[in-house]
């Protein structure tokens, strides 16, 4: 009897849960990283059906952004604001496989619907200008010299069906843009709960932009599931790596200026041979570090967003099951079956916080650390890039790409979009492989190169490379520095010019023999570079102007003085000339005498 009742109830329950499945959810993932860091990943995602969107019924989709996208026929949009450097050596693989981060500054790419390339360019111009206003960023500076049309590096993420033919991909970067609070505020305004409730209530400009690394992302794409209407999905993501110690430091209590902690408070690794009173190597793990959500974010989590899917837990943390975590009342803990993470359902009203106490110190310390922290995942590839060479005329770029895997080759597309004043010599492009024995150097499988035109477009270089297991590839090329017109230099010309990060797209491994079969693309970006160009001494014209002006002023002053001054002996001066009144009377007398004389002469 019981079983038959249940068998009726379950499909009914599933049916209802399907109908009422929310189209919006948000989640915060916390992940302690080595060296006293904490990765906080905020994710907000919502669905709006395409028919609703086209009928201007935007539902969860922010209207301001929706209207811009409709106006310029944008089918897919990706916008990134990033700051800092992801330290892959200590923090391991990037969150979201690196697909939700951009190079330092602002990065934008979109698929636009247009019949011709010129029409796509016009729409791109409208899009960048509109987004620039919406996000308070200088996106309108993405002109034709900073726009590229990537050929191999980007693939559409959404389901575009058959109308992929008239879609144009355009990509632009602003490496010099400084991401700050004025970009966070519009970002929060796009969320259904606008940062007032739910996990977005934790976001605060002071903490976000004090992070060691941060990236804000907006992705809009159409998604079609089988047997359902296609939806337009908007996903907003904020990832940041907080330094726990720095975030916990109290602010503005008689100490408004953040200062480095005194030497005796530093946590040093005393096992290093050079450790002494005045040298300190920071210790790897914040062993004794305890923290709570309100300490590191500066505020409590205020309830849940009423629109969010109640089945998706609001906060998740990646620590082994052995570690104790305390939360405020009424939160429901859900342990993940892998034993490495757990999630919390937050009460819909009131404030929520979570405390991670110090690690238990009993027994062997090293063993405890291994038991109570999750080892970061090894990334598929390490990448770094730097400028080589010296002098004002020529330079070089060297990229070092390391495949840490002992048995899997990695295939990727390496893309550079360089400013026009960096004229590269393609014949100097070389790849050298180190590590695996018997590997030839011809690992570049395909090259796409679009040379720069002065003041019209930049260089675009895309390379498809296959890097053998456990080896290092050195990609090098030389370039020549152009001399700019003096009006083309920025006001801080001696700082140098930012060169955008190179974008590395790791392709899915398709060979079925290789052990881990990856179906998804992952991304990686190097840091941006600071290129110094030959800069004229701008103080020279200034010096010349000042010097000539002084000389003229001196000569003119003296000459004029000699010409107009009348010299009289002291005894010849009129009486009473000592006072101001006397002087004035004398002047008037002289002037009137002069005028009279003049009149007589003209008559
Ligand atoms: C949105 O739609 C996609 C595809 O149908 C689905 O996978 C997802 O769970 C839906 N909801 C949210 C909040 O993303
Ligand atoms: C100190 O450095 C050594 C390597 O020199 C390392 O093995 C050890 O884990 C470090 N200890 C801490 C606490 O960071």
From TrEMBL:
Q: Membrane-spanning regions, if any?
A: 540-563
Q: Which Pfam families match?
A: Gpi16 (PF04113)
An example Gene Ontology biological process: attachment of GPI anchor to protein
The protein in question is named GPI transamidase component GPI16
Q: Which residues form the signal peptide?
A: 1-21
Coiled-coil stretches noted in the UniProt entry, renumbered to this chain = none
Q: Which UniProt keywords apply?
A: Membrane, Signal, Transmembrane, Transmembrane helix
GO CC, one annotated term? GPI-anchor transamidase complex
Keyword flag Transmembrane helix: yes
Q: What InterPro entries does its record include?
A: PIG-T
* Origin species: Xylaria bambusicola
């Amino acid at each position: 009897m019981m079983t038959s009742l249940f068998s009726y109830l379950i499909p009914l329950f599933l049916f209802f849960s399907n109908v009422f499945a929310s189209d919006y959810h948000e989640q915060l993932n916390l992940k302690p990283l080595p060296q006293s860091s904490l990765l906080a990943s905020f994710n907000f995602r919502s669905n709006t059906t395409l028919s609703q969107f086209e009928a201007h019924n935007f539902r969860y989709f922010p209207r301001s952004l929706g209207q811009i996208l409709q106006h310029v026929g944008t089918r897919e949009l990706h916008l990134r604001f990033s700051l800092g450097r992801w330290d892959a050596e200590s923090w391991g693989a990037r969150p979201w496989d690196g697909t939700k981060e951009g190079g330092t500054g602002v990065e934008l790419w979109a698929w636009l619907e247009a019949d011709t390339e010129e029409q796509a360019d016009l729409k791109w111009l409208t899009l960048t200008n509109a987004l620039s206003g919406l996000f308070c960023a200088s996106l309108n500076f993405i002109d034709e010299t900073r726009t590229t049309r990537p050929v191999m590096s980007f693939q559409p993420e959404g389901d575009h069906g058959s109308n992929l033919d008239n879609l144009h991909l355009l990509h632009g970067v602003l490496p010099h843009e400084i991401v700050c609070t004025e970009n966070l505020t519009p970002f929060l305004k796009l969320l259904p709960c606008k940062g007032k409730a739910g996990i977005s209530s934790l976001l605060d400009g002071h903490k976000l932009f004090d992070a060691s690394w941060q990236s804000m992302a907006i992705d809009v794409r159409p998604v079609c599931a089988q047997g359902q209407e296609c939806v337009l999905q908007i996903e907003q993501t904020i990832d940041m790596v907080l330094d726990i110690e720095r975030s916990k430091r109290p602010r503005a209590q008689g100490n408004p200026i953040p200062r480095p902690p005194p030497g005796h408070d530093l946590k040093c690794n005393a096992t290093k041979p050079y450790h002494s009173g005045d040298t300190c190597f920071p210790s790897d793990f914040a062993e004794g570090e305890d923290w709570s959500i309100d300490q590191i974010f500066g505020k409590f989590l205020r309830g849940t967003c009423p629109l969010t899917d109640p089945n998706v837990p609001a906060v998740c943390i990646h620590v082994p099951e052995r570690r104790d975590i305390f939360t405020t009342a009424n939160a429901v803990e859900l342990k993940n079956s892998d034993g490495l993470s757990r999630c919390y359902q937050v009460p819909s009203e009131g404030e929520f916080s979570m405390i991670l106490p110090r690690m238990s110190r009993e027994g062997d310390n090293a063993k405890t650390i291994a038991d109570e922290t999750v080892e970061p995942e090894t990334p598929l590839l390490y990448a770094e890039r730097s400028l080589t060479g010296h002098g004002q005329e020529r330079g070089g770029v060297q990229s070092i790409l390391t495949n840490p895997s002992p048995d899997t080759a990695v295939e990727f597309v390496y893309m550079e979009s360089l400013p026009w004043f960096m004229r590269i010599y393609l014949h100097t492009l070389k790849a050298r492989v180190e590590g695996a024995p018997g590997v030839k150097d011809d690992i570049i499988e395909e090259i796409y190169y679009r040379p720069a035109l002065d003041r019209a477009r930049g260089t675009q270089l895309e390379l498809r490379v296959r890097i053998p297991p456990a080896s290092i590839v050195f990609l090098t090329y030389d370039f020549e520095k152009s001399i700019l017109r003096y009006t083309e230099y920025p006001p801080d010309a001696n700082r140098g010019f930012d060169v955008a990060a190179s974008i590395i797209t790791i392709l899915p491994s398709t060979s079925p023999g290789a052990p881990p079969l990856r179906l998804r693309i992952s991304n990686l970006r190097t840091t941006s570079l600071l290129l110094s160009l030959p800069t004229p001494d701008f103080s020279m014209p200034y010096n010349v102007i000042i010097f000539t002006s002084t000389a003229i002023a001196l000569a003119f002053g003296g000459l004029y003085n000699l010409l107009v001054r009348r010299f009289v002996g002291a005894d010849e001066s009129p009486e009473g000339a000592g006072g101001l009144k006397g002087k004035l009377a004398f002047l008037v007398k002289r002037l009137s005498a002069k005028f009279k004389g003049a009149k007589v002469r003209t008559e």
